[in-house]
Amino acid sequence: MTTLRSLTVxxxxxxxxxxxxxxxxxxxxxxWLRCGEGMVGFGEAARFTASGPxxxxxxxxxxxxxxxxxxxxDPIGAPGTGLSAFASFAFSKxxxxxxxxxxxxxxxxxxxxxxxxxxxTSDPARTLDEDAVLAAMAGWxxxxxxxxxxTPEDEIRPGMLSESEWKNAVARSVAHxxxxxLSKIVLARDIxxxxxxxxxxxxxxxxxxxxxxxxxxxxxxxxxxxTPEMLIKVEDGVARARVLAGTLDRATAPEDDPGYAARMxxxxxxxxxxxxxxxxxxxxxxxPFTSSMSSHSEPFVLELPNVWHLASDxxxxxxxxxxxxxxxxxTLLDALHPTAAVCGFPTSVAGELISELEHMDRGxxxxxVGWIDAAGNxxxxxALRGAVIEDPQTVRLYAGCxxxxxxxxxxxxxxxxxxxxxxxxxxxxxxxxGGQSAVSGRTPAPVGA
Length: 449
Hints:
- The protein is an alpha+beta fold.
- The protein contains 9 helices and 25 strands.
- A hairpin with a 2-residue loop joins strand 8 (106-111) and strand 9.
- It catalyses: chorismate = isochorismate.
- Residues 430-449 are annotated as: Disordered.
């Protein structure tokens, strides 16, 4: 195993206006940002990949060995400082996608008024002192961020299923629910953005970070997006989660009705049922790892620029084992994923139906994405409202909906377009409306036609 050396150096805080977004300058960057804070990674000092049902346990074993062997100097000692890594995991245990942990060569971080830069190297001969760290930082951020303008060649193409085929999959799902096979399934679909010029990943991430400040903007190896859903956050022995289920498109709301979202979400039995299933699917698996746990007695309405969601926050004190150790974030991921919010309930039945009905491999979409540090802290969201850069001019976008007994195929299709909207706008493509997508000021044939 490669032995890593890591040094953390305090730095001045980034600009208050956009925070760490100012350091998004390179296409192959890693990031985890919210409200301008978080971490931005450059380069690669080490990498681990795995696939299959044991991907989480294999990743945890590798990370523990890497941390144990590393020489880490961290005078700050806050969550995210010192040796840290970014990670992305496949949604499905059957997926050929290689889940990955990437230790960057350089991490710039900021949180709660403290900013730092960490340099990590596997080269035993490389100088690792404050001057070397600051020089490496200057080299990495000395780049002009790529910028892309929309072109007439930009277009949105159907993914694995046409719109009519996907609506048929929703109808088949409702039939399975009516037959008592399951109570909820989350069906996803994809579309493809074919661009006339290469995608500018830093530009996309900046757009997402500015438009969706309260979401977690992520980038790991070509997977990028801005998720509103925190699967699990571990910090100093306390675990937190944010569960979302129940969605309302803001584009459909009347302008002069401030109580519309609460009435349509909290007053809808379909939306409430979907949310109850999602929260219960988190609390059950999390409970064995905790000494105490609390959550909202009633969900609240989370307002985002594109949609409203029913949301609940969960807080839990993690229990110590006989040796006084608490479970790390990767252990919790293995226990929690997939929740009903991205799979369905029962998850085993829903997972089988997803494979049958979606006709695609989700890869990292709807899988855990986030970061870990050497102290066992970490944050992992669910890779939603995102896309995968397949090549410089091809980006595959994903969106899904929770299907329950009261679901309507046409309404669910429109919900997917509301969830595609953040990435489409960040890519410079107009969002879908009324069965067609306006791209670069022109109206192509209906998607799925």
